[in-house]
Amino acid sequence: MSKPINDPLAVSLFSEISAIDHLFKIQLSKSLPIGMKLSQFAILNHIATLDGEKTPVQLARSFNLTKGAITNTLTKLSAMGYIHTRPDWDDARSKLISISTAGKNARNRAVDSIEPILGNLMKVMGAEKTKSIIPFLRDLRIILNNLEN
């Protein structure tokens, strides 16, 4: 039988992060253009900021997803015309993914649709408070990522 967590500070931290994640995803999902899911936006946004193409495996690692989960989302993005998939000429077993013009436009519409949420959040939080919390959140993400490995 596992030992219960008795540290109220750790439980409080976990609870707050879980609640923030849940609330933020709900707000973003409601604001995205009709037909776009948060997972699709996240991948489009990621690909839009990259130089060059990425393999599905590289994208899966970036999002800590299984190859099956990333393939499912990439298939849907491809069907919408938002990404291009081509063979990797150096590795015939692999494919390379890039964003299409339609994908860039869809990503930009999505960014425009969530801008009011982010703008309001920044108004309330302020730049200084936001800057001060980012290093903590980054450290927490790194620690949690290292616990997996």
Task: Tag the structure with descriptive keywords.
69% helix; 149 residues; mainly alpha; 2 strands; two-stranded antiparallel sheet; Arc Repressor Mutant, subunit A
Walkthrough of the structure:
By secondary structure, the chain is mostly helical. The protein has a single domain (35-148), classed as Winged helix-like DNA-binding domain superfamily/Winged helix DNA-binding domain (Arc Repressor Mutant, subunit A). Helix content is 69%, strand content 10%. The protein is built from 6 helices and 2 strands. It has a two-stranded antiparallel ribbon with strand order 1-2. Strand 1 (83-88) and strand 2 (91-99) form a beta hairpin. Helix 2 crosses helix 4. It is globular, with a radius of gyration of 18 Å. It starts with 7 loop residues before the first helix and ends with a helix.
